[in-house]
Design brief:
Helices cover 47% and strands 21% of the residues. Strands 2-3-10-5-8-11 form a six-stranded antiparallel β-sheet. It has a five-stranded mixed β-sheet with strand order 1-4-9-6-7, with no helix packed on it. The protein folds into three domains: 158 residues, Jelly Rolls; 57 residues; 51 residues, Arc Repressor Mutant, subunit A (Orthogonal Bundle), CATH 1.10.10.60. The N and C termini lie far apart (49 Å). The chain is globular. It is built from twelve helices and eleven strands. The N terminus is likely disordered. It is an alpha+beta fold.
């Protein structure tokens, strides 16, 4: 049955997407999965936001105006809402939507690294369908909805990786480089010296067992914004920060499984995994076997 969200005209405008059972905040980004259904709301955003609509959306919307315009958004459409946008919205969606709300500090650093002028930063924009961002959104939706249904712990690092991937696609659209970022990566790499990346790796190793470790922390150690840190890191090490962290945690967990009689749940906790099941999945992925078989 469709979900209906309403914000009565006499009430103060909403300043963010409504609280949902499928949401998480990590690395300066709040990721919310809105279920399919109807929306009737008045909003005044306190954060910039990105909306990924994996299905078709029919809406009547008034942006900084009481006059509503009817729009049909095709599946996979990406929408950018700058902070401070006021709007009234009536919409019907046939599939879940993925909403990212980004705090000011993260947003400004990403804009600066992308060298985006002031005007595009402040403009509401609807971008053409982006298949890669859509695939990431579908994965994020499936992951958070599955975690909510099973009442299982969410891995913050996984969600952050999805959020950064979607955000990087939005910035590629804003800079007009939706398919190729090699020129930008070359420029960012000049700032991402070996010493800076080395500082990020040192932080990673010192906090490998910390479940609260996020890519934003590593980017801060390197003096880069999270989106572009990922590109620089991969250009130097050949893998993304997310995959590198998973591999290092799986390696440490494997060594503890083989070299100690510690309980598997305790090993998962000590190596930064969100659960024993998550550890088992990653060990099997990287080493082709389960922790139980490693210990035999």
């Amino acid at each position: 049955m469709p979900t209906v969200m309403r914000s009565e005209a006499l009430e103060p405008p909403l300043t963010r997407a409504p609280d949902c059972s499928c949401e998480i905040e990590t690395g300066g980004v709040r990721l919310v999965i809105l279920p399919p259904g109807d929306i009737d709301a008045t909003m005044n955003l306190r954060r910039s936001a990105i909306a990924m609509n994996v299905g078709t959306v029919r809406q009547w919307i008034g942006i900084n105006s009481d006059r509503k315009v009817e729009r049909f958004l095709a599946p996979s459409t990406m929408v950018y809402w700058p902070k401070g946008t006021s709007f009234t919205l009536i919409a019907t969606r046939d599939a879940p939507s993925c909403i990212l709300e980004i705090d000011d500090g993260a947003m400004m650093s990403w804009f600066d690294d992308a060298e985006i002028a002031d005007q595009p930063r402040q403009q509401f924009r609807i971008h053409k369908p982006d298949p890669f961002a859509t695939a990431l959104s579908r994965s994020a939706i499936a992951y958070l909805m599955r975690s909510s249904q099973k009442h299982s712990k969410v891995d913050n690092l996984t969600v952050e990786a999805y959020a950064l991937g979607i955000t990087s696609r939005m910035f590629a659209r804003l800079t007009g480089q939706s398919n190729e970022r090699s020129h930008n990566i070359q420029a960012w790499t000049k700032r991402g010296s070996n010493q800076r990346i080395g500082r990020a790796i040192e932080l990673l190793e010192s906090r490998l067992s910390d479940q609260n470790l996020c890519i934003a922390d590593l980017a801060a150690a390197a003096g880069l914004s999270p989106c572009y840190f990922g590109a620089v890191f991969k250009s130097r090490l050949g893998v993304s920060p997310y995959l590198h962290i998973l591999r290092r945690r799986a390696e440490l967990a494997r060594d503890l499984v083989k070299g100690t009689d510690m309980a598997l749940a305790e090993i998962a906790f000590r190596t930064g995994f969100s659960s024993q099941a998550h550890m088992t999945t990653l060990i099997k992925r990287f080493y082709g076997t389960t922790p139980g078989r490693l210990r035999q």
